[in-house]
Automatic annotation (TrEMBL):
Organism name: Aphanomyces astaci
Record keyword Signal present: yes
Disulfide linkage: 46-55
Keyword Magnesium: no
InterPro entries: EGF
Name listed for the protein in its UniProt record: EGF-like domain-containing protein
Limits of the EGF-like domain: 17-56
Signal peptide: 1-17
Swiss-Prot/TrEMBL keywords: Disulfide bond, EGF-like domain, Signal
Length: 283
């Protein structure tokens, strides 16, 4: 997927009479580059944080919906390192971003869970993540067997999305969106595809102003308020940050003037803790 999308937009457009990229009065609204795809079409490749065919829309803060109970799985992928180039590095790619895995330093023995996490944390478009090693076969005679294998869990993504009109997802990126160079060096396999926590504008609890990139209130958070300021809602949802909520025992809370997101810790009745995002109230 990454290579396909890049191939669509690698050629910068040269101005021809009567041909231009979308956007008014300026091409790509001054928030992107004008490109020619493989079909000869003039398209915009927006700056990170902008989207739309003409790059006129600014993306609002994104987060997980802490109220939705039927989508609680975190995205997990299996990363299989199939072979190590003897004197070069492996380039790992995801949605227009590239990081380097030093394949020449120490061989397969240096591919630990810490190294795995360090490599993927270099991606600006990923958030909190963790790696767990899996057992691999000791049969080194087969080129199809991995020399190292990890289960990569994507716990979160950036509050301010590092996405655009060409590279975007809703919390469940496909395994094919990840790749390596050389391609034969690694393989990505999706381990979780259903009931994945949705990564949505305004955490699905607000209206996105695509002009300003801010959240428009009011937004209603269902639950009973137990504590003001560091507000605890029914179900154990804790809003950390300055709020204007000072009443208690309400059936719902209306939060307005939302401009950013803060971390939430959500604990269900079974005390299973998961990391979410919700809106911070600025008044």
């Amino acid at each position: 997927m990454w290579s396909i999308l890049v191939a669509m937009a690698v050629v910068a457009a040269v101005t021809e009479p009567g041909k231009r990229c979308p956007g008014s009065p300026n091409q790509c609204s001054l928030h992107g580059s004008c490109m020619i795809n493989r079909h000869g079409e003039y398209i915009c490749n927006c700056q990170w944080g902008y989207t739309g065919f003409d790059c006129a829309q600014k993306m609002c803060p994104h987060g997980f919906d802490p109220v939705t109970s039927d989508a609680v799985q975190e995205k997990k992928l299996r990363v299989s390192i199939l072979h190590l180039p003897p004197s070069s590095s492996i380039l790992v790619q995801f949605h227009g971003h590239v990081v380097e895995l030093d394949a020449a330093a120490g061989g397969a023995t240096h591919l630990t869970t810490d190294v795995c996490a360090q490599v993927f944390r270099r991606f600006r478009n990923l958030g909190d993540l963790s790696c767990a090693s899996t057992a691999v076969s000791a049969d080194a005679s087969s080129s199809s067997l991995p020399v190292a294998e990890f289960d990569l869990t994507l716990h979160s993504f950036p509050v301010y999305p590092v996405m655009n009109n060409l590279f975007h997802h809703a919390g469940n990126p496909s395994a094919s969106d990840f790749s390596c160079d050389p391609p034969s060096a690694c393989r990505f396999t999706s381990l979780t595809d259903a009931n994945i926590k949705a990564y949505l504008p305004c955490s699905n609890h607000g209206l996105c102003n695509a002009v300003s990139g801010h959240l428009n209130g009011p937004v209603t958070i269902q639950g009973n308020v137990l504590h003001a300021n560091h507000t605890t809602l029914a179900g154990g949802v804790t809003v950390r940050g300055t709020t204007a909520i000072h009443s208690e025992d309400l059936g719902s809370v209306t939060v307005g003037k939302l401009t950013s997101l803060v971390a939430l810790s959500v604990t269900d009745a079974a005390s299973a803790c998961l990391t979410c995002r919700h809106a911070e109230n600025h008044v």
